[in-house]
Amino acid sequence: MAAMTRTAFKTAKNAPLADNATGDITAAALRAVIDDFADSATFPEDIAADLVKLAGVEEGASADMTGAEIKAAYEAEADTNAFTDVALTKLAGIEDGATADMTGAEIKAAYEAEADTNAFTDAEKSKLGGIEAGASADMTGAEIVASVDAELGGTDWRMLRFEQITQAAYDALPTPDPATLYIIVG
């Protein structure tokens, strides 16, 4: 269609269009007439802005979508994430000012500042490292004897006599008794 002036459009709007002898205007014909009119006419700014806005509305757009329809349409798009009740609950459980990048020193300081916590120092770690696996501070005499038997491979050591003496007394012995285990005291 050729461009129409406003007057020509007013005259033509009630006349049958060339492709429609019945007088009913098809959507395609109406769109063509409006496009020609919009291309050739001068509009006041408010109407021009409305036409630009109207041109930006996509086909089949609806102003009466429910919240559920909007949510479903949004979540169906690529690269979108649903903001679920689970996500909201998780977010609500994170305290203000929380960070995911605390240093080890910050974590240690925060932990040790809590009530009923104890610092695990390098000295304590070294002390624990020096204790033999399975060690016990409450062994009975029988357990100690059994442990020594196992370590020495027999019971021959039991024939030893134990004697507590001073270093000076030991040094004064002419010949130490091989069947005596001398325990130096004081």
TL;DR of this structure?
The protein has 186 residues and is mostly helical. The chain contains 9 helices and 2 strands, in the order ααααααααβαβ.
Descriptive notes:
By secondary structure, this protein is mostly helical. Among the domains are: 6-55, no CATH class; 150-184, no CATH class. Helix content is 46%, strand content 5%. It has nine helices and two strands, in the order H-H-H-H-H-H-H-H-E-H-E. The chain has helices at residues 6-12, 27-40, 45-55, 67-76, 85-92, 104-112, 122-129, 141-152, 167-172; strands spanning 161-165, 180-184. A two-stranded parallel ribbon has the order 1-2.
Rg calc: 49 Å
Strand order of the largest sheet: 1-2
Structural class: mainly alpha
Number of helices: 9
Series of secondary-structure elements, N-terminal to C-terminal: HHHHHHHHEHE
Q: Give the CA-CA distance, first to last residue.
A: 124 Å
* Biggest beta-sheet profile: 2 strands, parallel
Shape descriptor reads: rod-shaped
Write down how many β-strands occur, each being a DSSP E stretch of 2 or more residues: 2
Domain Minor tail protein gp31 C-terminal: 165-185
InterPro entries: Minor_tail_gp31_C
Protein name: Minor tail protein gp31 C-terminal domain-containing protein
